[in-house]
UniProtKB/TrEMBL annotation, chain A:
Name of the protein: Proteasome assembly chaperone 1
Domain of life of the source: Eukaryota
TrEMBL record, chain B:
Subunit structure: Forms a heterodimer with PSMG1.
Family label: Belongs to the PSMG2 family.
Known function: Chaperone protein which promotes assembly of the 20S proteasome as part of a heterodimer with PSMG1.
Annotated PANTHER family: PROTEASOME ASSEMBLY CHAPERONE 2 (PTHR12970:SF1)
Entry keywords, A to Z: Chaperone
UniProt keyword annotation of Chloroplast present: no
A GO biological process held by the record: proteasome assembly
Segments forming a coiled coil: none
Protein name according to UniProt: Proteasome assembly chaperone 2
Species: Brassica carinata (Ethiopian mustard)
Length: 263, 274
C-alpha cells in the first residue's frame, strides 16, 4: 500500500513551494531569442500558417519532410548546443525554424529542446506575436498522461484538439475534424503557452494532442492530418524509416524533465 | 500584467467588487470561484496575461460536455446582476514569484476601478494550534484592512471569526507590507526559508501576499478563510461561496435569493485544475 503521507499529490493539488510567498526566486536567465539565416530579415515574419511540432511523432514527420529550408533557430541561452550536429538531426537539442516555400508563407518549427514551464511564456511570445506573427497556428503535442483524467491505453491511438475562439469561428471546412479535448483534463507547458498566446492575440490557433507518445500509428495519423492542411506537403517519404523510428532511443519524452536545468 | 478583453465583449465598470481565489490547500478558493461563476451566470469578459503564471489550457470548465470553449490560466468574469467581477486562476505561480504576481494583480484591480476585493482561501487544518469551536458548524474566518488589527465590523455582524493569528507587527507581515508599500522607508530583509517558524505560516501563504498588495494600493480588501484538509473540498467551497455573497458591500435582492437558493450540483462541472 502506498504511503499517503509521502506520495506525490495528484496533479490538481499543490506542492509546498506553490503556496510559499517566501520561496526563493530562481536565478534570472538571459532571454531566449531567434537567429535567422537572413542577416537583414524583414521582421516580423508573417506566415499564413505556422506549424509547431513538440511531440516525437510530429518531430519525426517534420524532420523527414524533403523540401524544407532551414531559415533560423530559437536559442535558449541556458541550454548548451554542444553535441548538436551541423546538419539538423532528431537527436539535436534545438528549435529550428524551416520554410516550406520561398515566400515564407508556411513555416515549421521543430521544438527539440526542453522548455521549462517557467520559460514557456518567453518562448511562446517570440514564436507567436513578436518575431513571427502568423495568421494561423497549428501546434502538435502529445497528451500528457499526468494531466489527463481518464485511462490512456498504450494500444489505442487517440487525438483531440483545442481551438482558439477565432479558429472556432472560421469556416468548418477549414478546421480540423477532431473531437475536442475532454473537459477536466489540462495541457500545460509550452504547447499550452503557445495556444494561450494565440487566444490572447486573437489568432486562429489549434492544439492537436495525440496518444501514444511514440507510435507509428500516430505518425501515420499526423502525416495524413498535415497533408489535409497543406495539400502540397510531401509526406510520402515520412514512412520510410517508420519501423526504425518506433524502436529508436533518444527521442524526446517529457524532455523538460531531462533538461540540464533539473540536474 | 495585461488585461485582454475578449472579442465582442465590454467591461462593465459597475462590477466594482472583485472576488478572486488565493492558491491554497485543497484548491478551495478556486472551487469557490467556479461555484460563483456558475451560480451567478457570470460571463467571461477577458483574460489576464501575467508572465509569472505557469501556462495551462483546457476545455470549457463549466459545461457538462466539452464544447471546445478554451480555458486559460487567469480569466475574468462579470456578473452585472450582482455588480461583481470574478477572476479565476487555474494554474500556479512560478516558484518565488508570488509577490510579483500579487503586485501585478493589485495594479489591475486599482487601475480598473475596483472598490472592494474579496480573496477566498483555505488554511491547513494541520497547522492549527488551538481547537476550533465547531458548535455553530463550520466557521469562516476573515482578515480585513478596515481596521489596523484586521477587524471589520461588517464581518463581525455576519458572524465570521476574526483571524487571530494576524499580527501586523509580525516580521513576515511587516516584510510583506514593506515590499508593496512604495512609501515604506523601513528596509526589511527577505526571510530565508530556513528562518521561518510556525507563526510565519499565515503570512507565507498566497492570500497574505494578495491581502498586503491590495491594501498597499488603497483598496478595501477582505480575506475569507476556512480550515480544511486535502480531500473532497467541495463542501468547503460551498461554505466560502455562501459567505462571500453575504460579505459584499451592496446586497441586492437577487443576491439574497442566491444566498437561500439550494446548493447547485456541480459535481460534474467544477474543474479548477491546478
Amino acid at each position: 500500500m502506498e504511503d499517503v503521507l509521502t506520495e506525490n499529490p495528484p496533479p490538481s493539488r499543490f506542492i509546498q513551494d506553490d503556496l510559499n510567498n517566501f520561496a526563493s526566486p530562481p536565478e534570472p536567465l538571459p532571454s531566449p531569442f531567434i537567429v535567422l539565416s537572413n542577416p537583414k530579415p524583414d521582421l516580423p515574419l508573417k506566415p499564413s500558417l505556422l506549424l509547431i511540432s513538440l511531440s516525437s511523432p510530429s518531430l519525426y514527420i517534420f524532420h523527414s519532410l524533403p523540401s524544407k529550408t532551414l531559415i533560423g533557430t530559437l536559442i535558449l541561452p541556458e541550454l548548451p548546443v554542444s553535441g548538436n550536429t551541423i546538419e539538423p538531426s532528431l537527436q539535436d537539442k534545438s528549435c529550428n525554424i524551416y520554410s516550406l516555400s520561398n515566400d515564407n508563407s508556411i513555416l515549421l518549427v521543430s521544438v527539440q529542446l526542453p522548455v521549462s514551464p517557467e520559460r514557456s511564456n518567453l518562448v511562446s511570445r517570440l514564436l507567436v506575436g513578436q518575431d513571427i506573427v502568423p495568421e494561423r497556428v497549428i501546434i502538435l503535442d502529445s497528451i500528457q498522461s499526468r494531466n489527463f483524467r481518464g485511462r490512456l491505453s498504450p494500444d489505442e491511438t487517440l487525438a483531440a484538439k483545442l481551438e482558439t475562439s477565432s479558429e472556432k469561428k472560421a469556416a468548418a471546412t477549414s478546421r480540423l475534424n477532431l473531437d475536442y479535448f475532454p473537459s477536466g483534463s489540462v495541457i500545460d507547458g509550452l504547447s499550452a503557452s503557445l495556444l494561450s498566446r494565440c487566444q490572447l492575440k486573437n489568432i486562429r490557433g489549434t492544439l492537436v494532442v495525440s496518444w501514444p507518445e511514440f507510435d507509428p500509428s500516430v505518425v501515420r495519423f499526423l502525416g495524413a492530418l498535415l497533408k489535409n492542411i497543406v495539400p502540397g506537403l510531401d509526406v510520402a517519404s515520412v514512412g520510410k524509416d517508420l519501423e526504425m523510428y518506433s524502436s529508436r532511443a533518444g527521442l524526446k519524452k517529457d524532455a523538460w524533465v531531462e533538461s540540464d536545468l533539473y540536474t | 500584467m495585461e488585461f485582454v478583453v475578449e472579442e465582442g465583449k465590454r467591461v462593465d465598470e459597475e462590477c466594482s467588487t472583485l472576488i478572486l481565489p488565493a492558491l491554497s490547500i485543497g484548491n478551495v478558493g478556486q472551487l469557490a470561484v467556479d461555484l460563483l461563476v456558475s451560480s451567478t451566470g457570470a460571463d467571461r469578459v477577458g483574460y489576464l496575461d501575467d508572465p509569472y503564471l505557469l501556462p495551462c489550457v483546457g476545455n470549457d470548465a463549466y459545461g457538462p460536455l466539452p464544447c471546445g470553449e478554451i480555458s486559460l490560466p487567469l480569466e475574468v468574469y462579470e456578473s452585472p446582476s450582482t455588480a461583481t467581477t470574478l477572476a479565476q486562476q487555474r494554474s500556479p505561480v512560478a516558484k518565488g514569484m508570488m509577490i510579483k504576481f500579487a503586485e501585478n494583480i493589485a495594479d489591475f484591480a486599482a487601475s480598473s476601478g475596483k472598490k472592494h476585493v474579496i480573496v477566498l482561501s483555505s488554511l491547513d487544518f494541520q497547522r492549527l494550534h488551538h481547537n476550533l469551536d465547531m458548535s455553530r458548524g463550520p466557521q469562516v474566518y476573515y482578515l480585513s484592512n478596515a481596521e489596523a488589527n484586521g477587524r471589520d465590523e461588517h464581518c463581525e455582524r455576519l458572524g465570521f471569526g476574526r483571524l487571530n493569528e494576524y499580527d501586523s507587527e509580525g516580521r513576515c507581515w511587516k516584510y510583506l507590507c514593506s515590499v508593496f508599500d512604495e512609501n515604506c522607508k523601513e528596509e526589511l530583509t527577505f526571510p530565508s526559508e530556513d528562518e521561518l517558524e510556525d507563526i510565519d505560516y499565515y503570512p507565507s501563504l498566497p492570500f497574505a501576499a494578495l491581502f498586503s498588495a491590495f491594501k498597499a494600493r488603497g483598496l478595501k480588501v477582505t480575506c475569507l478563510l476556512c480550515y480544511c484538509s486535502e480531500g473532497d473540498n467541495i463542501p468547503d467551497a460551498f461554505l466560502l461561496t455562501r459567505r462571500s455573497r453575504s460579505c459584499r458591500l451592496h446586497v441586492g435582492s437577487c443576491v439574497w435569493r442566491l444566498l437561500f437558493h439550494p446548493p447547485i450540483d456541480v459535481s460534474n462541472r467544477v474543474s479548477s485544475m491546478k
